[in-house]
């Protein structure tokens, strides 16, 4: 599940995490970047954990991880919605403070 913080009232900092110890490339894709895997490459941390921080306005977002060319839901986030491809997308709601 992404972690939220409040740097300002209009946009919130959201940190996404993905565990993919054998991955060569991981991207965060979703409605916030038109599902483009080239726009938000994740940073490789220690122990196979990848992360990416975004500033998002209040609203609902759908997202997935793009791991070496394969789609993956966020296993830490139980909130999902069906997509037109017969699978599910992870869902995140960002609330303004």
CATH class: Mainly Beta
| pLDDT averaged over residues | 91
DSSP summary, beta strand count: 9
Shape assignment: globular
Q: Please identify which CATH superfamily we are dealing with.
A: Immunoglobulins
Helix count, DSSP H or I runs of 4 or more residues: 0
Poorly predicted runs of 5 or more residues: none
Order of helices and strands: EEEEEEEEE
User: In CATH terms, what is the fold-level topology?
Assistant: Immunoglobulin-like
Spatial separation of the terminal alpha carbons: 19 Å
Task: Provide tags for this entry.
97 residues, mainly beta, Immunoglobulin-like, 52% strand, 0% helix, globular, 9 strands, 4-stranded antiparallel β-sheet, single chain, 5-stranded antiparallel β-sheet
């Amino acid at each position: 599940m992404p972690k939220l913080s409040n740097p300002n009232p209009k946009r919130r900092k959201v940190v996404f995490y993905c565990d993919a110890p054998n991955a060569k490339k991981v991207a965060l894709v979703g409605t916030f970047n038109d599902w483009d895997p080239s726009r938000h490459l994740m940073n490789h941390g220690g122990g196979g954990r990848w992360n990416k921080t975004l500033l998002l306005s209040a609203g609902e977002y759908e997202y997935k991880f793009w791991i070496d060319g394969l789609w993956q839901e966020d296993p830490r986030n139980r909130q999902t919605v069906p997509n037109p491809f017969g699978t599910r997308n992870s869902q995140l709601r960002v609330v303004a403070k």
